[in-house]
Amino acid sequence: MSQVYVVGYDGSPSSQRALDFTLELAAESGGSIVLAHVLAWSPYSFLTQEELAERHVRKQEELARAESAVIKPVVEQLAGRGVTVDSVIRYGNIADTLCEIAGEKQAAQIIIGRNGDAGVVARIFGSVASAMAQGAPIPCTIIP
Amino acid sequence: MMKRPNTLSTLLLVLVSLLFSHAALAQEAAGLDATINNMVGPVVAPFVNTIFYSVPVFGVSFPLIVMWLVVAASVFTIYFGFIQFRAFGHAIALVSGKYSDPNDAGEVSHFQALATALSGTVGLGNIAGVAVAVSIGGPGATFWMIMAGLLGMASKFTECTLGVKYRNEYADGTVSGGPMYYLTKGLAEQNRAALGKVLAILFAIFCILGSWGGGNMFQANQAHAQLVNITGGADSFLSGNGWITGLVLAGIVFAVIIGGLKSIAQVTEKVVPFMAVLYVGTALVIIIMNADRIGWAFGQILSGAFTGLGIAGGLVGALIQGFKRAAFSNEAGVGSAAIAHSAVRTKEPITEGYVSLLEPFIDTVVICTMTALVIVITGMLNVDPATGLYVWNGEAGRIATEGSLTGVELTSAAFGSSFSFFPYVLAIAVVLFAFSTMISWSYYGVKAWTYLFGEGKTSEVTYKVLFCIFVVIGAAMNLGAVIDFSDAAIFAMALPNIIGLYLLMPVVKREMQSYVRKLKSGEIRRYQ
Q1: Could A52 and B262 be called an inter-chain contact, meaning their C-beta atoms sit closer than 8 Å?
Q2: What residues does each domain of chain B span?
Q3: Residue of A nearest to B173 (CA)
Q4: Contact B147, B322 (CB under 8 A)
Q5: What are phi and psi of A120, to 5 degrees?
Q6: Which site among B269, B277, B455, B528 would you substitute to test the A interface, given the most A Cβ atoms closer than 10 Å to its Cβ?
Q7: Backbone phi, psi, residue B132, to 5°
Q8: Which of B272, B345, B443 has the CB atom closest to A49's CB atom?
């Protein structure tokens, strides 16, 4: 059975580095790649009345934008590379959702980039990378 | 925010010039306040008198509208078999997302619908309204307020279920719900289309008035009172110059609802829940600090509820004040919540009904009770040491208080007696609560307005400009006239709404039975 690698991808330079690393990994082992794009979302955030009324439309728009601007260009670019690429776009807590996706795809490894941002907020609440390092159920590679 | 530097800088310029030119204008302004007062007062009086038509009960005049709300809440409580107690646990499970489909992530959750609806209702009613109730009706009013809150949970349950069930989902994906829609669509299903239409139109008219009254003028008025209070009371440059507060508030409201400056609304939306928690937390600390008086305070509340403790009106007086202020604070049966709750993503409308019954609980049973307890426990109401009864200030028509305070100032003084800095925190909280309530009500008002006059940019802007004008009027008028009109306009909404709820409650019952069946059969399951 070929290995499945889940890579957290949001179009940023660090996620691009994570993808490049995953491509090498997949090429070596003949594995397949799952591009996971998670839109940060909490069901416990506070919205205004107008945002509530428009939420459903906004979700459709955000999904369409994520598909056309983030995922589609990469999938097209990788089409000729001989590697199987699958993609998932989902809402949720980024670290939790990445782990969920990895579980569903029975992935062998999760690969994410880190943006090197160690600001006050990240120090207090932790970053996605540190949450993954501590909480991932399977091996997780963090690309600097 | 960055995209609109012009709006912001203009606003700032207006603010600064207002603050510096106040001295020159002060003379003229005092006259302006009085003029606005004299103009608006007589216009609203007939409306207020009609809505608050009262009958004498044991020598006290009892407004029929309060009876209307309480009877409805009791009918729904019995009809749905004390749903507020039976479904309380399930409501909490729904809010915490235990039944939310993970595929619906990114859509409006039960928690979000509840939080937004709460930020529209938690406001001055909880702070100022309760102080008015306790100073007129005595501590016993608290007991009746809690009763009204508990009963009101059933009214909310009914109206919010209908709000989601009969909402409009437009081609562009936005949703619009509320009494206008369930009255029209729901009653049409029962071959009562004409009645439904009439009720819906009446509701929409009253909702617009309510959005200008309780949802706007009352808020502006009390926010102003607070600002005067903390900037030096009678010596404050704002004293008697309500139009200044009014213009500033109107400017910010204008920037948000017309200028589309969403960031202000978003910030408020995040700060308000924090303020509410801080308020309840401080109240708890004050109550604990006075632990030796807790038993006495509850004794006052209970005995006051049934004997009146020598307060004019006795039992009935306490009951009317408690019911009235509870209804004004949690808006159960009024129909506004049905608009607020209708955007949630759910396959079962009844789930939002369950969630909404937590709203009067949090608003009235928890927050209002905290305010009342703090006022009673800190001894703000003067007691005659000889008789142990409250001292009645016949001239003001309420219990004598330190410095004859009432409304938000009484609450502020009660909190201030334990924490001297708290009036400042409270003032910020009041202004924020007032602001978030205004933004919520401007949304309800727009929905009612577009229901009557059709969707469209011009139509919406017309309403919103009028809304901003009422902010200024509200801040300038004296409390009596504003509070009367505010109450009347909001209670008027309950007339058509509750008629509709009586006719449509079998629909809610069917929804409830089908949901309970699905829950038992496992068709609806927990995801967590």
Answers
A1: no
A2: 33-521
A3: A57
A4: yes
A5: -60, -45
A6: B269
A7: -65, -45
A8: B443
Cβ atoms of residues B501 and B72 within 8 Å: yes
Residue B39, pLDDT > 50, answer yes
Give chain B positions within 8 Å (CB) of A55: 106-108, 343, 345
CA–CA dist A43, B360 (Å, integer): 22
Q: Do B105 and A43 touch (CB under 8 A)?
A: yes
Using CA atoms, how far apart are residues B238 and B114, in angstroms rounded to an integer?
36
pLDDT of residue B479: 59
Closest in B116, B120, B173 to A56, CB measured: B173
pLDDT digits (tens, 9 = 90+) for A16-54: 888 999 988 888 888 899 999 988 888 888 888 888 888
Is residue B175 over pLDDT 50? yes
B258 and B104 Cβ atoms separated by less than 8 Å: no
- Options 1.20.1740.10, 3.40.605.10, 3.40.50.300, 3.30.70.1350; CATH for B33-521 is 1.20.1740.10
Beta carbons of B372 and B141 less than 8 angstroms apart: yes
Task: Kindly state the average pLDDT of the residues B454-474.
Answer: 89
For residue B129, pLDDT over 80 is answered with yes
Shortest Cα–Cα distance, B97 to chain A (Å): 8
Q: Average of pLDDT values for B297-319?
A: 77
Chosen CATH of A4-143 out of 3.10.20.590, 3.40.50.300, 3.40.50.20, 3.40.50.620: 3.40.50.620
Helix, strand, coil percent values for chain B (each to nearest 5): 75, 5, 20
Proportion of chain B above pLDDT 90, given as a percent: 35
Average pLDDT, chain B: 84
Q: How far is B441 from chain A (nearest CA, A)?
A: 10
Instruction: Using DSSP, state whether A101 is helix, strand or coil.
Output: helix
Please tell me the predicted confidence (pLDDT) of residue B32: 62
Question: What residues pair up with B61 in beta bridges, in sequence order?
Answer: B56
Provide the angle, in degrees to the nearest 10, between the axes of the packed helices B314-330 and B294-307. 110
**Cα–Cα distances in Å, from B181 out to B73, B190, B462?**
21, 14, 22
Supply the ipTM of this predicted assembly: 0.84
Whole-angstrom distance, CA of residue A92 vs CA of residue B255: 32
| CB-based contact B374:B414 (threshold 8 Å) | yes
Query: CA distances (Å), A124 to each of A40, A94, A129, in order?
Result: 18, 17, 14
Which residues are CB-contacts of B141 (< 8 A; sequence separation ≥ 6)? B133, B134, B304, B305, B318, B319, B321, B322, B325, B372
- Asked if B175 lies within 8 A of A53 by C-beta distance, the reply is yes
The predicted pLDDT at position B241 comes to 77
